[in-house]
Design brief:
It is a single chain. By secondary structure, this protein is an alpha/beta fold. The protein is built from eight helices and seven strands; from the N terminus they run βαβαββαβββααααα. Strands 3-2-1-4-5 form a five-stranded parallel sheet, with helices on both faces. The longest helix is centred in the C-terminal third of the chain and has 19 residues, at 148-166. It is elongated and about 60 Å long. The relative contact order is 0.09.
Length: 201
Amino acid sequence: MSDFPIALHGERITAVIVGGGSVGTRKALALAEAGAQVRVVSPLVTAELEEAERQHRITVVRDAYHVDHLEHAMLVVAATDSREVNAHIALDANSRGKLVNITDHADEGNFHTMALHRSGDVTIAVSSGGVPGAAARIRDAIAERFDGRYERAVSALRGLRSRLIAGGDDRWRAAAPKLIGDDFCNSVEDGSFTEKVDSWR
C-alpha cells in the first residue's frame, strides 16, 4: 500500500479522539495544536487532557464510545485500549466516509500520522513504511539541519510574496526564482539569504 501525503488545514478540522490514555492524549493535543476542534470521548482521561479541557483547547465527553459520537467529525482517531472497540470504530467511521486512524491496527483506517518536525511555517513529515521508530530517527536528523534559520527564511518569503503580489505587479514572479533557486538552502545556512530578501523589499 502506498502513502499519499497531504497537509490538512488544522483550523478547518473537527476531530473526535476515542480514548483518553497516553496515545489518545498525544493525538488530541497534536490536533489541538494545529487548530482543530477536538472532542475526546472516554470515561477517564489523563491529567494532560483535563488541563487542556480547563484551558478550553479541547472538549471531553466522559462516556463510553457510541456511533453517535462520530456525527459531526471530519476526522476520527480510535485510541482505546480495546481491540474490539477500535475495530468497531473503524467500521463505523469507514462506512460514514470519515478520515479515520486506528492506532493499534493502521490497516483498518484510511490514514496514519507521520513523524513531524515543525518550525514556524515549515513542516516536514516522515513516513517509514509502518516503522514509527525509524521515522522518528529520520525526523530528528532532518530537524538538526532545518532549524530556526529556515523558519525565519520562510516567514520572510511569505511576507515578501504577499507584499509584492498585493502591489499588483509581476515582481514576485521575477523574485521567486532568484530567492528560491538551487542555492536556497546554502544561502539560508550561510546567512546571505537575508540580504537577498532585502534587495526585493
